[in-house]
Amino acid sequence: ALVEAVAYEDDGIREHAFLALETIGEPAAEALMISAATKATPAATKWFQNRVDWPGAPAWELDLWGGATALNPKFTFKIHTEKLFEKDLKKSTELLCSNRFKPTRELIPILIRQFADIDSEKKSDLERAQTRRERAFELLSEFGARAVLPLIAALNDDELGIAAWSAKTLVQIGDPRAAPAIVDAFAKRLDAGDELSGTPFHDALQELVLPEAEALLLKTRPDERRARVVFERTYPGAHVSNIPLPPRDPLPNAEPFRLKYVNQGKAKELKVVFRLEDGAWSPNPPLPETLP
Predict the structure, then answer these.
(1) ∠130-112-168 over CA atoms, to 5°?
(2) Confidence at residue 28, expressed as pLDDT on a 0 to 100 scale
(3) 39 vs 68: CA distance, rounded Å
């Protein structure tokens, strides 16, 4: 009945059925795939078949979400829009940032793809790529729960940029399904030797107040934000900021920071050095028991 309901004309019934199927999760994916293959329009069927190229594929999240989307009787997808994003960086960036671009659920995989790094060193291309990431982040955040499943799938994409910005977007949306998926994907990349410090993936993990997230943060080279968080956790109520250090090559087992804070009305500084010992990054020497 739920699979049939996602094909109703009524938007309210369709969205409630979509949410219920997402709640069921992986067990609902096969029925949706079968229904989409036999009942979706030709355009929707072709779009759904192309999910093998979506970020994070193959994934049951994409099978479920894509199948339910393809069964929408109001399905709309313009193939020339996809081609434009693939072939013309300048024009597609202009479209993405204009009022002419009307984001629909069918375009969510294309939006997630905008998180990818580009193979160019031209300043203008790099700036456009960043503009696209930020705009895609904004639009996907506005989709909210409707974008969660494809974003969760994208956490496991081979390209770190796509995975990292997907994690950042999921944290922004705040859906409870995202937290364990972010932790799991981060752990896999850390075990694979990926450098995650200072990436949007690292930022996303630091937003999660979970013991599992903290355990992974201890294994990850700290960045300025991590230094501030550890300082503020040690001294509740303290207001701290980072003082930039001169550029240098990273040290293999140490990461220094200079922190600025206020104590008893006076501005003070404290040098903090995180060291990697027994697989964990922590201040060494330890932070003083009382605020200096």
Answers:
(1) 70
(2) 97
(3) 11
